[in-house]
Amino acid sequence: MSHDKLYADPKLAAYQQGKTAIPPKYWLWPLYGAELENLGLNGKPIQVDTPSPGPDELLVRHDAVGLCFSDTKIIKAGETHPRLIGRNMKANPVVLGHEVALTVIQVGKNLVGKFKPGERFVVQADIYYKGVGLAYGYALQGGLSQYNLVGKEILEGDEGCYLLPVQPETGYAQAALTEPWACITAAYDVIYRVGWKPGGVVLIVAGPGALADYELGTPYGGGQPPAQAITMGLTGKLLAELRRRAKADGFKLIELAAPSEATLAEAKAAAGPEGLDDVVFLGADSALYELLEPAAAKGAVLNLVGAQAFSAPAQVDVGRLHYDHLSLVSTNEPLIASAYTPIRTELRPGGYAAFLGAAGPMGQMHVQRALQAREGPKLLIATDLVPERLAVLETKFAQLIEAKRGIMELSCRTPGTMSAAEFNASLVAATGGAGFDDIVVLVPSPGLIASATGMLAKDGLLVIFAGLNRGVRAAIDLRLVVNKGLRFTGTSGSAIRDMLNMLSAAESGVLDPNLSVAAIAGLGDAKKGIEGVMHQTFAGKIVVYPQILDFPLTALEDLEDILPKVYAKLGPHHSWTVEAEAEFLKELLP
Fold it and tell me: If 271 and its partner were Cys, which of 127, 201, 388, 587 is the partner (CB 3.0–4.6 Å)?
């Protein structure tokens, strides 16, 4: 149905154009501290006065908001949440909701001509203003409110305007789910350094298995040397080469004795508070890796040159691989620069891919993206512990699976009575013993990350998607990492570029975020929705419509008896559609 026909109803047309009356008061859900009992007052939202925008502000209406597991982390942590340290939530409560679609309702006088009522946007929630993080739904009021003021923090942020325009024909839920979907697509669009950081600090350390014939090669581009190179226990030809390079290229060379706690302290003092941008391990063992890894800066590259001394797994900080964008690379050649090759971050076309813990909302999105890839893997294996949860994938994506029949196969597997080792062996057997080109870990389990490493094929890629706290370690066989040339990637959140790419994919029909929707609710039942996220009640995303106050939290398949006209416009296998959403708004908007 065309957009004009879809919104031909006068009430819907006025709503979409931002021409509905602005109420003197509106509803929101304040969070006054940790735990669910501090959400709202007496378990209900509250009413506050609707503000008028100042000269440099917009009054916006929240149209749809997706509930996220990150919201539950704020509820659990309260004022101890890293983004809320120092905030008095009793006096200054948080309003959750960062997966937001909104419409401009009023424009401040200094913004006339730049914005107009009826314009629709999504929010890039990770907002920075003058160097300070002010995320939407964290420091700034979020989507579990009917209206909000948007000011300079968002309109003139450090990366520009954090409001991203949405086409009129895009559904409200589709738009709101741009944010979580952008986190998915960002995991496959990572740019890692392929050389030493220009102007950075590199540490080159000789371990117990160090050889005598290392060569530097070209680990940095011409005219882009590091500011400092620090060595530990280095002698011979490589040290002589570094001395020549330092003199020719103008970087400072600091020569330290063999690696120890004392020489590490010297290296950290020389590097400064930001840490080491590159660490080159020559013949390291696990103890040396564990000693030096904590000194790596955010975005650092850890380069393992040779595996001969690794006799036991190393405790790798997988939380930092995820949140601090560390890159773990390796080479078995004595040429240091050979490890600095581009890291493939997209699923290998025609390869084998596994999604571990795939039954949750984010796991479903990863599987959907793979199924809709133009050139995806030939085999997708999705795993989970609960067969009933995993079966949703085959039902929800039945049309996508049928469209790829003969080209791509989706296999859903649960361990049943098998041990973890037996289950992993059965997964590798499904690849003909080759192992997986790509494994995406969707469960925050260091043990699962460690065991997944052993299932990778040569040049395999492990995507650590489920975030573990910094400092959480997994026992990883680094000998295997070096000998197979394995790579690890990890991302957290998304950037404006990722949001724009995802919006384009949704609005062009490449990916449909509506397939992620499992249940809907009005604002009054948002608390039950968050409980649903906590308890994984629904096999997919919950979307709240803030302008509808009193609609109960409802699974899409249960709409048949409650809203039969809406149910009739659902897609195959009870999937949410723009048409069903329009009918929902038509029936329930005040």
Answer: 201
DSSP letter (8 states) at residue 40: S
Q: Are 45 and 524 in contact (CB under 8 A)?
A: yes
* Closest residue by Cα to residue 71 from 59, 60, 83: 83
The residue count for the chain: 590
Give 373's contacts (C-beta < 8 A, 6+ positions apart): 347
Query: Looking at this protein, which amino acid is placed at residue 228?
Result: Q
**pLDDT tens track for 331-370:** 999 999 999 988 899 999 999 999 999 999 999 999 999 9
Chain segment 173-229, per-residue pLDDT in tens? 999 999 999 999 999 998 889 999 999 999 999 999 999 999 999 999 888 999 999
Q: Is the pLDDT of residue 1 over 60?
A: no
**What is the CA angle 287-492-396, rounded to 5?**
120
Give the CATH number of domain 201-339; options: 3.40.50.720, 3.40.50.450, 3.60.110.10, 3.20.20.100: 3.40.50.720
Distance CA 390, CA 394 (A): 8
Which DSSP string corresponds to 306-366? Answer: --TT--S-EEEEHHHHHHS--EEEEESSSBGGGG--PPP-SPPTTSEEEEETTTSHHHHHH
Residue 441 pairs with which residues in a beta bridge? 356, 464
Question: Class assignment of domain 3-187+496-588?
Answer: alpha beta
Q: Note the Cα 474 to chain centre separation in Å.
A: 20
Q: What pTM, to 2 d.p., does this model score?
A: 0.91
Say if domain 352-465 classifies as CATH 3.40.50.720: yes
Question: Six-digit token pair at 164?
Answer: 């991203």
pLDDT in tens, 45-100: 999 999 999 999 999 999 999 999 999 999 999 999 988 988 999 999 999 999 99
369: left (phi over 0), alpha (psi -120 to 50) or beta: alpha
What is the pLDDT at residue 3? Answer: 61
Determine the Cα angle at 396 with ends 391 and 398, to 5°. 95
Do the Cβ atoms of 313 and 286 come closer than 8 Å?
A: yes
- For residue 578 the two structure tokens come to 């723009």
